Amino acid sequence: MNMRSRILLVAAVVLTGACGEREEAATAGTADTAAAAVSAGNIEVALSDSGLALSSESVRPGNTQVTIRNHGEYSHGIVVRGNGFEQKIQSVAPGTQTVLTIDLKPGTYELSCPLNDARGDHAASGERATLIVTT
Predict the structure, then answer these.
(1) In the chain, what is the greatest distance between 2 CA atoms, to the nearest angstrom?
(2) In 3-state terms, what secondary structure has residue 101?
(3) pTM of the predicted protein model
(4) Which own/partner contact pairs does 12-15 have at CB distance under 8 Å and 24+ positions apart?
(5) In angstroms, rounded to a whole number, what is the distance separating the alpha carbons of residues 100 and 122?
């Protein structure tokens, strides 16, 4: 898969999540756009060789199912940290996915790739995102 295809795939994952949330908000009659951005506790993380994209920038507190997909050509991992919480999956092979179920409290969390290999520090290269857990 070439770089352009990977970028389009990551964009599609992000847009798919955003569109679904807008439809849910419209159905519920919610006027608050901040509330519309909150998912029901499931989130997708798209890992690539050049970045990390979330399907939603916020979720509700409680058990959260995080589906992690590696769209890159290299292994990547994920660490979720914030509010005294940290959980890590060291490595997700290219073309595979894994699911992590975590119990999140309200606050701000950083998701990043913990790998530092011959290609450098993955998080410093842009493989990071912020997740807000809000009620």
Answers:
(1) 50
(2) strand
(3) 0.70
(4) 13/44, 13/46, 13/53, 13/55, 13/69, 14/46, 14/53, 14/54, 14/55
(5) 20
| Average pLDDT estimate for 112-121 | 92
* 35: Cα separation from own chain's centroid: 18
Quick: pLDDT tens for 67-114. Answer: 999 999 999 999 999 999 999 999 999 999 999 999 999 999 999 999
Residue 76, number of CB atoms within 10 A of its CB: 25
Burial of 99 (0-12, 13-18, 19+ CB in 10 A): exposed
Look up residue 13 and give its two tokens. Answer: 């994952």
Q: Structurally, what CATH architecture does the domain formed by 3-133 represent?
A: Sandwich (2.60)
From CA 94, how far away is CA 60, in angstroms rounded?
A: 29
Q: Where are the domains of the chain?
A: 3-133
